[in-house]
Design brief:
The complex is a heterodimer. Chain A is mainly beta. In chain A, 40% of the residues are buried. Chain B is mainly β. Chain B folds into 2 domains: 112 residues, Immunoglobulin-like; 255 residues, no CATH class. In chain B, strands 14, 15, 19, 20, 21, 22 and 23 form a 7-stranded antiparallel sheet that branches. The mean pLDDT of chain B is 88. Classes of the chains: A mainly beta, B mainly beta. Chains A and B meet through strand 10, strand 11, strand 12, strand 14 and strand 15 of A and helix 1 of B.
């Protein structure tokens, strides 16, 4: 038994963190991409036990990367320029010497130098679903570091090879430091544990289940290093709803935001497969409650977020011939978030001296629904492919409601994209992979009826409204990626260098203030003078990677 | 050993799941917010108001036609209503925590009264019917009527200027009536607490409710009776340190022509030309300077009635000062009836629920909403006298009565200088 544990550890640890010691394979990047696409359980579920059914060959890769993102077509809180250094490795497969277990690990380190970010003085990731935070108006730099690691283990089959246990887990630690007053040092820890089970009726049919637990903590308090200048701050509770004041060394608004979330959920899966067809149907549900406190010693609530996410997936693979393979994926995603606000009074009685909750109400609702379609066709060649053609479409509906004063926002988007990849094997030592992709997004509905009283406040005009215009902009997107792989290094599958570029540009009638004012007359008081000025330009992403496959 | 690990693992797992489930249960059945209808009765009370005891409003003192304003302390949304002949105002509001202010005037016994009052923070989450308002004391807004005064605080420059310069704090007072006002013995008080806060002090029960305001620093104007007349439209300027501050900080201004200074003994911050005000009470002495909060303090001016002498000796008498419950610092007790005018300065206008002085002194609050920004608050001018001097708005509600100015100006609206000033 001890020997077995050592064997597992000996493989899991390297697989988790580097993957260098994994047994050498002939896999190129294209081979890894195809293997992942064909692993229907791993690619579409959290079920680690399902890895035993997919039974992927051992594969691993590691790379160092640099991403450069620039442009103002983005949400207000996201940086206008982001320079990211990244180290990533993932790898695993079926390991015969530990009882044919499936083991897979992933590690990513990211260091982001962000500049041109506004309206966030709390959150390490301002794009996450969290309406309660402290905002400021200063154009700021952030330096963020994230360590993200996860694993999946599928244990050997039990009960006449019918039962498989598995476990997946992940841990993310992040630190985010804003570089201009008011500046928080925000720390994040995010733990996920997902035990799973699969009952394989026969080689064709399997039923799986996953239990999901998440524990999330985030903590940040914007402080002023320069005490000579107090800063304006906003305690946000929803877009356009806030308490504004001064962020100062003492007095002023409540600065601290201490997030504490727990989530419980699960999913069910059914898969069918035969020689040339496999399909997986799954449904998942996650219920997450996140308390936001603004005082450590006297629990004062900023709010609570109650989030329910459920979805239905269908994935299928059809091998028309040994070379012609078609992949189809569909997911319906339903993300329902409710913002709960508290009414608390401070009981100054000597014995109590704490905040007492007089009442709490659900005050806001954020509902996101999306249908996601993907179809890929590839022409297989060896363990990789020569050509791959893909189509994808997303139909998304994003709604926000603040009950009293009555406010409603809705944006309906439809995105359609296509991509083509050609994997050119020049000779036994050299290969190129070329990918081009393009897409177009159309907004079929956008409305924002604001019923609040702070329509002339910057946190509404320059933040909530600007985010709304960004969300409701049509855009076009295109990009390419070129990867060169060299296979002539002993004991390695390949050394690769990759260059990618993507461009997102707003289109349609939202490109100037004049057009926006025409579409949204309520903007006129704020931006009537800037009719000819473009609201957003574009957003570019340049990606460079140097890495190895094993 | 294996058993211990199993038990330990089970215990940790149970603890994690139990706390997780507790957290989820807490918000499981939270109701959706809906608008509510509330009624409140405005009652006028005279005499001593006991702490938490039942108040007997004066039944002959009509409060009809008074405006009742509910300001949501979170959203800033304002709801207004007017009392009917039954003194009840009914409003449709959203549940929440409100600061309520009552503003109006009434005539009683041949005198004009301000009917101003406020409740800094009250939680309203359910409907309140007019019947409940009529019968339940909980839904009464008890207001202490205040006689319409003549001497008012007309401008305060308190926030300082970048970088971190606060020696130019200045206070201006104006005779807003049509009769001469005598400044002799008038007191100018900085009220406790120094910064607006939701955690208001708890005073001993013996002081009742709203019968006093409490001061940490009381300055007194000189004179023995009629030595310092202030004519209608004349103003008096008091400065922390009168001088041309532009020498120290080019962003500041010149207040060297102040009529009085509030000197605390720092030889390097003394203008020998300017008469000192007497400090007759202090909670803690700062010999550097008299610095009031750049976030906004609260102030009042008051005068004792004839026959009562207020001086340093007066505040040595333990019945004339008070300490918070379970605390030792002492604060001067100022009877509500003595107050001529008061102004509540807030850190920002969203902090109305943090008001520290009772509504009969100031039913609202005002703010420049930033520190070291060089702005001031001053009363709005409603009309001008024939001699060009201003008449200021004074409804006893500084939210309405004051405006924010970009820079301090001494006698910005053409007020005249008293004849007795030192520099004339």
């Amino acid at each position: 038994m001890k020997n077995k544990i050592f064997k597992i550890a000996a493989i899991l640890v390297p697989a988790l963190f580097v993957g260098f010691q994994a047994i050498a394979q002939t896999g190129s990047n294209a081979a890894i991409e195809r293997a992942k696409l064909e692993s229907i359980w791993l690619n579409n579920t959290e079920n680690a036990a399902g890895g035993m059914i997919d039974a992927p060959v051992q594969m691993a890769n590691a790379y160092a990367g640099y991403d450069y993102t620039k442009g103002n077509f983005k949400p207000m809180r996201v940086g206008e320029e982001i320079k990211s250094l990244k180290f990533h490795t993932d790898g695993g497969g079926i390991y015969k010497n530990v009882g044919n277990m499936f083991i897979w690990g992933d590690f990513t380190y990211t260091r982001d130098d962000i500049s041109g970010a506004k309206w966030n003085a709390t959150l390490a990731d301002p794009t996450r679903d969290m309406p309660f935070f402290v905002a400021d108006e200063n154009v700021s730099k952030w330096k963020n570091q994230t360590y993200d690691m996860s694993f999946k283990v599928g244990f050997p089959r039990l009960i006449n090879n019918h039962l498989i246990f598995g476990i997946a887990g992940g841990y993310q630690a992040a630190i985010a430091a804003k570089q201009l007053d008011p500046r928080p040092l925000t720390r994040v820890s995010n733990l996920n544990v997902m035990p799973s089970i699969v009952w394989e009726f026969n080689p064709n049919n399997a039923l799986g289940a996953v239990f999901h637990y998440t524990s999330y903590r985030e903590d940040g308090s914007p402080e002023n290093v320069n005490h000579l200048h107090d800063q304006k701050g906003w305690e946000m509770v929803a877009p356009g709803f806030f308490n504004d004041g001064v962020i100062a060394s003492f007095a002023g608004i409540n600065k601290l935001r201490n997030y504490n979330a727990n989530a419980l959920g699960g999913s069910l899966q059914y898969s069918f497969q035969n020689d040339n067809f496999k399909a997986l149907l799954s449904g998942d549900y996650l219920y997450r409650v996140e308390d936001v406190l603004c005082n450590y010693t006297k629990p004062q609530m900023s709010g609570t977020v109650k989030k329910t996410v459920w979805g239905v997936n269908f994935a299928a693979q059809y091998n028309a011939t040994e070379k012609d393979r078609v992949f189809f994926r569909y997911r319906y995603n339903h993300n329902d978030l409710r913002g709960i606000e508290y009414f608390q009074t401070y009981d100054n009685t000597y014995e109590i001296q704490s905040y007492i909750t007089d009442a709490k109400f659900e005050r806001s609702k954020f509902l996101k629904k999306s249908h996601n379609f993907n179809v890929d066709y590839l022409i297989a060649e060896g363990d990789a492919y020569t050509w791959k053609f893909g189509l994808n479409a997303v139909s998304a509906k994003d709604e926000f409601t603040y009950y009293v004063p009555e406010t409603h926002k809705q944006i309906n988007n439809f995105f359609f994209g296509a991509d083509v990849t050609y994997n050119l094997v020049v000779d036994s030592q050299n290969a190129f992979n070329f990918n081009v992709n393009a897409g177009v997004n159309n907004v079929s509905k956008s409305m924002f009826d604001y019923g609040g009283v702070k329509e002339d406040n910057k946190a509404f005009t320059d933040f909530a409204l600007m985010d709304f215009i960004w969300q409701s902009s049509d855009y076009t997107k295109w990009g390419f990626n070129i990867t060169y792989s060299f296979f002539g290094i002993k004991n390695l599958s390949s050394l690769f260098v990759s260059l990618g570029y993507s461009n997102v540009k707003p289109s349609g009638d939202n490109t100037t203030w004049g057009a926006a004012v025409k579409k949204f007359p309520f903007l006129s008081p704020y931006h009537g003078a800037d009719q000819e000025k473009s609201i957003f330009n574009k957003r570019n992403l340049l990606t460079i990677k140097v890495g190895l496959t094993f | 050993m294996k058993k211990i690990y199993t038990i330990l693992f089970a215990a940790v797992l149970s603890f994690v799941l139990a706390s997780c489930i507790d957290m989820m249960e807490d918000v499981k059945d939270v109701e959706k917010i809906e608008p509510i209808s509330v009624s409140y009765k405005v009652c006028a009370a005279t005499g001593f108001i006991p702490k938490g005891g039942s108040i007997t409003p004066d039944p002959n003192f009509s409060t009809a036609g008074v405006e009742v304003t509910f300001t949501n302390v979170k959203t800033g949304q304002v709801f207004k209503g007017t009392t009917g002949t039954n003194s009840i105002a009914t409003l449709e509001i959203e549940p929440g925590v409100y600061s309520i202010s009552v503003t109006g005037r009434a005539t009683h016994g041949g005198y004009q009264y301000f009917i101003n009052g406020n409740v800094p923070s009250i939680s309203v989450f359910e409907d309140v019917t007019p019947e409940q308002a009529n019968t339940d004391e909980k839904y009464r807004l008890v207001v202490r009527p205040a006689k319409v005064g003549s001497f008012c605080i007309s401008e305060i420059y308190y926030c300082g200027i970048a970088s971190y310069y606060f020696r130019d704090q200045t206070y201006q007072f104006t005779n807003n009536s049509d009769e001469v006002f005598y400044l002799d013995g008038v007191c100018f008080a900085q009220l406790h607490p120094n910064i607006a806060t939701a955690n208001l002090p708890t005073w001993p029960d013996e002081d009742g409710d709203g019968n006093y305001v409490y001061s940490m620093m009381v300055w007194q104007f000189p004179g023995t009776g009629k030595d310092y007349p202030v004519q209608p439209g004349e103003s008096v300027v008091v400065a922390q340190e009168p001088r041309d501050h532009r020498v120290n900080n080019p962003n500041s201004y010149d207040n060297s022509m102040a009529d009085f200074q509030t000197w605390t003994g720092n030889a390097s911050r003394y203008n020998p030309d300017v008469p000192n005000l007497s400090c007759i009470f202090y909670t803690s002495w700062n010999s550097m300077q008299w610095l009031t909060s750049v976030f906004g303090a609260a102030f009042c001016v008051y005068k004792a009635p004839d026959g009562t002498t207020v001086d340093e000796a007066y505040y040595k008498d333990p019945t004339h000062y008070q300490s918070e419950v379970n605390k030792t610092p002492k604060y001067a007790k100022i009877p509500a009836d003595w107050i001529l005018d008061g102004v509540e300065l807030l850190t920002n206008m969203s902090a109305m629920h943090m008001k520290r002085i009772p509504g009969f002194v100031d039913a609202g609050g005002t703010s420049v909403e930033a520190t070291y920004c060089g702005k001031t608050v001053s009363r709005k001018v409603t009309e001008k006298r024939a001699d060009g001097t201003p008449k200021y708005q004074d409804t006893n509600n500084s939210t309405d009565d004051f405006q924010v100015n970009d820079h301090p100006v001494i006698r910005r609206n053409g007020e005249k200088v008293p004849s007795w000033t030192w520099y004339k």
